[in-house]
C-alpha cells in the first residue's frame, strides 16, 4: 500500500487543461474521482500511472517524487473500461503477462494466475481467448492481470460502465473482495454516483478540469456544496 501526495499538479493534453491539483490519497483507501465525461478524471489517473508528465507540480509516492519515473517502475496496476486484453493470449497468459515481463519463472506465473482466477471465479475460462469472453469475464481477467504484479496502487478507469447492471453489481462485490485480499490503495474513475458511494471511502469531484471538493463517500449527497456542485449532483435548492 502507498500514500500518494499530489502537489499543485497541472497537465495540458491538447486543448484540455487540468488546473492545479493538490490532494493526498491515503494509504489503503478506495478513492473515487467523480465527474462528467471530459472533466479531467482520466487525465489525472493516467498522470498518476506515469503515462505522461505534468506541466508543473509533482506527485509523491510514499514521499518519493515519481514525476519522472517510468510507469513500469511505479508498481501500479491499471484497468481500463476497454479491458485491453491481448487477443492472441489465453486468459491465464494475459494474467501472467506482467510477471513474465518481469522475469518470473513459469511456475510463479502459473501459480499466481491460478490463485487470481480462483479468487475472481474465472478458472473455468483459463484456456479461452478474449474474443469469446463476456464483458464480465473480460473485466475479471483484466483485474487479475493488474493484480498479478502485486501493485501497491490499483487504478480503475470507468471499469464497469460498459456492463449490464447485474454484472456491475457482481463486480462491485469482487472489488471489495479484492481489497480485502490485496489491501492496496485503489483509485477509481467513474461518473456513477451510486458506484462512487458504494465503493469509495472518499470522493473527489472534478468539474471542468478542476478538483472542486473532496468528501467522505457517505456524505456525498448530504453535504453542502457550491451551486455548481449541487447542480452536478442533481440536488434541489
Brief descriptors of the model:
4-stranded antiparallel sheet; 6-stranded mixed sheet; 237 residues; globular
Account of the protein in words:
- This protein has 237 residues and is of the alpha/beta class.
- 33% of the residues lie in helices and 26% in strands.
- It has seven helices and ten strands.
- The protein has helices spanning 41-49, 91-101, 106-119, 135-147, 165-181, 193-199, 227-233; strands spanning 4-13, 16-25, 30-34, 56-61, 64-65, 76-80, 153-157, 185-190, 202-207, 210-216.
- The strands form two sheets. It has a six-stranded mixed β-sheet with strand order 6-7-8-3-9-10, sandwiched between helices.
- Strand 9 and strand 10 form a beta hairpin.
- Helix 2 (91-101) packs across helix 3.
- The radius of gyration is 18 Å and the shape is globular.
- The termini are far apart.
- 38% of the residues are buried.
- The model has no long low-confidence stretch (mean pLDDT 90).
